[in-house]
Amino acid sequence: MTRIAKLTVYTASLNYAGGAYTFAKQRRYSSFTTTVLAVETDDGSIGYGEACPCGPAYMAGYAEGVLPALAQLAPHVIGLDPCHTAVVMREMDLALAGHELAKTAVDLACWDMLGKTANLPCYALLGGRLVEDIPLHRVVPLGTPAETAAHVAALRVKGFAHFQVKLGLGIDRDVATMRALAENRRPGEVFVGDANTAWRRDEALRVSNALADVDCYLEQPCAAYDACLSVRRHGRHPVKLDESLDSVGAVRRAVADDAMDAAAIKITRFGGLTRARIARDLCADAGVAMTIEDAWGGAITTAAIAHLAASTDPLALLNATDLHRYNSNDIAYGGPEVEGGVMRATDRPGLGVMPDPDALGDPVATFT
């Protein structure tokens, strides 16, 4: 039995390839700080994890908070067997309430180690490969109707057919944006209007009524869960929950309330794969379609997404996200292959990626 002997922490900037990433509530970023964690065992084996929030104002966790949280967790995970992922998660929960972002870095590194120890790709340990070609969605940043339509047209040429369209510039403009896209919709295309909690309940219903003849999802229309539930019950469109799904308990509640037609399963919201797979299985069992994704990240995060998506029931998988392709740089080699709007999980053991030492530079902390 191997034991965790050392944690080494690195940070790096991931630069958005589109210049400035813009979504509702005045949030606009051109780069994101990611944290990469190397978990080394007493026999010299190493597993790698990553945690990268989408800026400091999107979720409960920010980049500068990951290091002190890891410092708090380190004494409690050193000495544990990384292959016992549920044990590691339990000890982290006992040591530190919340801070799922930091726990994700540890958890992914442990899953990477488990796969390498078993000489199996992580998807095999998560249930087996059920999906070969994982359909991808691409985020369309906030913009005018014309800018949004041009962005979608460019993505369509590259083979993408699923589009998450950022909204939140006012009801009339949001309606105009979705109508402009509907005019040129191709067969089989999926459009999700994502307000990122920007609307009040009445505004969301007005948008849904105005777009009653447009085939699309509405994603997390309101900040409050109960408001989203009301939109789900009284609106004209299927509702996809995102920000409301911040724990396994929240997913269980949403399933019980029949609050969603689709769900965004972001791995860092659950503290890593150990609990994200539970959320995934709850949704799959309830017949809720899923986007398997994360807030942001490089090749390590995308590899985790690919392995979880590849082992998901294809009847429950709506799409996933190739986050490493959103950036103009990366922090690791061997990220999932992307071609023609689909992604494939690697067959290499573990997560199947290797950090780029030149991109990471010197560690910012080491815990032994």
What is the gist of this entry?
36% of the residues lie in helices and 23% in strands.
Label the structural class.
Answer: alpha/beta
Strand content: 15-25%
Total domain count: 2
Please tally the β strands and state the result.
19
For the largest beta-sheet, the strand count, sense and barrel status come to: 8 strands, parallel
- The rounded distance between the terminal residues' Cα atoms is 18 Å
Helix content: 25-40%
Shape: globular
Strand order of the largest sheet: 7-8-9-10-11-12-13-14
CATH superfamily heading of the largest domain: Enolase-like C-terminal domain
CATH topology of the largest domain: TIM Barrel
CATH class of the largest domain: Alpha Beta
What is the annotated CATH architecture of the largest domain? Alpha-Beta Barrel
Enumerate the spans where pLDDT stays under 50 for 5 or more consecutive residues: none
Average of per-residue pLDDT values: 96
Discrete helix count: 12
Q: What is the alpha-carbon Rg in Å?
A: 20 Å
How is the topology of this model organized?
Elements: E1 4-15, E2 21-23, E3 27-29, E4 31-41, E5 46-51, H1 63-77, H2 85-95, H3 100-118, H4 122-125, E6 134-135, E7 137-140, H5 145-157, E8 162-166, H6 171-183, E9 190-194, H7 201-210, E10 217-219, H8 225-234, E11 239-241, H9 248-256, E12 262-266, H10 273-286, E13 289-293, H11 299-310, E14 317-320, E15 332-333, E16 337-339, E17 342-344, E18 354-355, H12 357-360, E19 365-367
Parallel strand pairs: 7-8, 8-9, 9-10, 10-11, 11-12, 12-13, 13-14
Antiparallel strand pairs: 1-4, 1-19, 2-3, 4-5, 6-17, 15-18, 16-17
